[in-house]
C-alpha cells in the first residue's frame, strides 16, 4: 500500500502499528516497521525528501518501484542530534519514486514528510576579482557578471596562498612568435650546446 505525496505539501503520518520486514541499506539491519509513499516527479532536477520535522529517529530510503532498486538511503542528514532523515535526489519529470519511512533500531512514532520542488542546477561562480561563490545558479552568476563554472562545480579555496580562490584562476593568454628558440636557449626537441 502506497500513500501518495504531493510536491510541497507536508504529509503527516505514523509508523505506530505499521508492519513490514524490509530493511534499508542505512538502517543497520533493524529499521522496521515502515510505511510507504509514492511520488511522481513534477519536474526534472534535484528535489529534497525531508523528514526533519519528525518525532523519532527516522530512516528513509527511496526506490525506483515497489520492491525495486534502492536509489538512496539516509539515517541522520538533519544532524546527529536531531536523528532525522533527509535525501537530495536527482529526479526526472513523470517518473514515479517510492519512499520508505522507518525508524532506526525499530524506533516508531509520528513523522512529517515533504518533497520540495526542483531546485535549478547550481555550481561555482567566479567574479572578476577571482572570488568564488558556491551553489549559485547560472542565471544568478551572470547577473553579477560572473563566470559560471558549470553544474556541480565547487569552489576550491585558496590553496596556494595568493588570496584568490584556485577555481577562479585563469591562465594568461600566451602567444608564440617563433618556432625556433632564440639565441642562448636549448631546443628540447633536439638538445644541443648553447650557441
Number of strands: 12
Pairing-aware structural class of the strands and helices?
mainly beta
* Strand percentage: 25-35%
Order of helices and strands: EEEEEEEEEEEHE
Q: Judging from the principal axes of the Cα atoms, what is the shape?
A: elongated
The number of helices is: 1
Please identify the oligomeric state: single chain
Order of strands in the sheet with the most strands? 1-3-8-5-6
* Helix share, percent: under 10%
> pLDDT under 50 segments (min length 5)?
171-176
Task: Describe it.
This protein has 195 residues and is mainly beta. Helix content is 3%, strand content 31%. The protein is built from one helix and twelve strands; from the N terminus they run βββββββββββαβ. It has one helix at 138-143; strands spanning 3-4, 11-14, 34-40, 45-50, 58-63, 70-74, 86-91, 96-103, 110-115, 123-126, 132-136, 147-148. Strands 1-3-8-5-6 form a five-stranded mixed sheet, with no helix packed on it. Strands 2-9-4-7 form a four-stranded antiparallel sheet, with no helix packed on it. The chain is elongated. The relative contact order is 0.18. Residues 171-176 have low confidence and may be disordered.
